[in-house]
From TrEMBL:
Family: Belongs to the calponin family.
Protein name (database record): Transgelin
PROSITE patterns associated with the record: CALPONIN_1 (PS01052), CALPONIN_2 (PS51122), CH (PS50021)
Record organism: Batillaria attramentaria
Gene3D superfamilies for the chain: Calponin-like domain
Lineage: Eukaryota, Metazoa, Spiralia, Lophotrochozoa, Mollusca
Domain annotation Calponin-homology (CH): ranges: 63-177
InterPro entries per UniProt: Calponin-like, Calponin_repeat, CH_dom, CH_dom_sf, SM22_calponin
Domain of life: Eukaryota
Amino acid sequence: VLTQVKPPVVTECNGGVDWPSEGLIITPMSSNNPGLFAQRGPQAGPSGLQKPAVAPIAGKYDQEVAARCMQWVREATGEPVDTSGDMDKVYEDLKDGYVLCKLANAIKPGCIPAMKLNKRSKMAFQMMEMIELFNTKIKQPPLSIPEHSVFATADLYEKQNMVQVITCLESVARKCLSVDTPVKGFGPKEAEANRREFSEEQLAEGKSIIGLQMGSNKGATQAGQNFGKGRMIVD
């Protein structure tokens, strides 16, 4: 159960019921009844113990990198997003997930249902759904972005970690250089795997070789040293 400033407005998620108004976050109230939701207003900015944790993250934000990423997003999607790299403007352009889903669809045409790209939603739960949809699609082939490069929904929607959002866009752009997609990427090209194949004979020979981690009998050693004997000029 949620603790709220205003009395919760409970909505049964069945057909014919009006969804909450703009800016409300929909949260399940009971695990026993997933159709029962409570709505609450947008999250406030970081406060209390969150402030010391969020401040260093925001300090790592690179506006030049963000500007390059947003320019790439604009070219790939055709959306008139701001390309100054300003954190607040990046947040406003991306927070509903619409532009991100258009980017995913440009990279892999048809991966996003057309009905989701008809218009931008102003409902909080739909915005978060679009962000999560983008994250899901970029983790799938052909991009296969690793989990550690993907941002959490709250990182963008609640503006908790815009640095990770830009890092994710960089990873997507870099991956587009090494896979066959309609969108041209930017950045350093990722290294390709250099797999080595060994025959059974070579593997068997390797078992008789003492690895360097076992030590070495080459070079200087302590052989012949006697720490109990003094150094004498004349023996």
